[in-house]
Amino acid sequence: MIEQEITIQVGENPFDTKTIKVQVPRGTKILSTESYVLESLALYGLGSDIEDNVQKCENKEKYITQGEVVLISKDKAGNKESALIDIGSKFTAFCSLLKEPKEIIDQLEMGMTVDVKVKTSANGTVIASISDAMDEVKFNEILRSIGDKSIGFNGKITELINGGYWVDLAGIKCFMPGSLAGLNKLWDFESLVGETLIVMPVSYSHEKNTLIVSHREYLNTLIPRTVEELNENIKDQYTGRVTGTTKFGVFAEFNTCLTGLIPNTELDEETLERFNRNEIKPGDSITFWTKEIISDKKIILSQKGPKEDIWDDINERYKPMMITTGVVTKVAKYGAFVELEKGISGLIHKTKLKDVSIDRGDKVNVRIQSVNPAERKITMTLAD
């Protein structure tokens, strides 16, 4: 730093000037687009009255650019209160740190390159905001992700308003309609306030300059994999929440993103009595098993126990070397399939069928060779 004596303009009249002494970092300059002060400010570094010494800028539009922090001013207590940022093209912008979040202030250092949103005040001063630039970058990132089913954001539900919620996505205020807050109609709208949910941007309102987000869209992406897991654990008991009732039964939501129907014929005695008295309400807890998965969005549930699997005791019914009778259901290049009972078939490999002619529908005696319940496979030969 060196001391520099310079003359600066202090009013509208170009002859209204004063001479001041300032400490100037070598290589730092604050310039002006006004032709009569270019020469006088060319060597002006950074003084005590920073905001008064920032150049005028003719560009009135807001835009985001990068700049280098060339000065950080502190108050008497040593707290950072403002900064000058060199944004190129002979311009230096003033940034009030009193308006910036603490985490930004703590990290800000001389020589650091930062993104800033630049605007020009009514008097022509170039003003920069680091947080505004960060918000706009985040806003544009969310905006670009509309329609991308692979991108979700953590959003905190901050307020319940008419028709939906305000959701905070890392400082960006978004709107989520109540209908998009879940897969089914909510039974307690206020319960979501304060919760953090994963949401996906679905649209943008130009009229209100607001991003529209959906938790429902995110839940839909989970369904295929969750159904696979449900199928793999078909005998497990689950606890869900009632979402509604019809004359056919009770709808329940479970495993975060699945909804199934418990037909009234599959309700246990106690629940059926409550059902007939119209006492089952949305939000009630209910336990059940999976009876049948028809499709990802059509699942039949039951309170009468887990689904019976005909392969459960297959090792007890069919053992190696056992001879039994079956019906040929298919003849292929690699062998013949023989149905032992409804839903249970085995394979006679083609190597076991040499010099033997069998056709579909033939009744045959077979000898069991192996039984594999995990893979649901039975191998066999024709019995002598």
Mean pLDDT reading: 84
Structural class, by secondary structure, is: alpha+beta
Strand content: 35-45%
The SSE string, one letter per element, is EEHEEEHEEHEEEEEHEEEHEEHEEEEE
Report the principal-axis shape: elongated
Fraction in helix? 10-25%
The main pleated sheet reads as: 5 strands, antiparallel
Distance between the termini: 106 Å
Total count of helical runs of at least 4 residues: 6
Round the Cα radius of gyration to an integer and report it: 37 Å
Count the beta strands.
22
Task: Please mark out the parts with pLDDT under 50 across 5 or more consecutive residues, or reply none.
Answer: 28-60
Strand order of the largest sheet: 5-4-3-6-7
Q: Overview of this structure, please?
A:
By secondary structure, this protein is an alpha+beta fold. The protein is 15% helix and 44% strand. The strands form five sheets. Strands 5-4-3-6-7 form a five-stranded antiparallel beta sheet. Strands 10-9-8-11-12 form a five-stranded antiparallel beta sheet. Strands 13-14-15-17-16 form a five-stranded mixed barrel. Strand 9 (164-169) and strand 10 (172-177) form a beta hairpin. The chain is elongated. Residues 28-60 have low confidence and may be disordered.
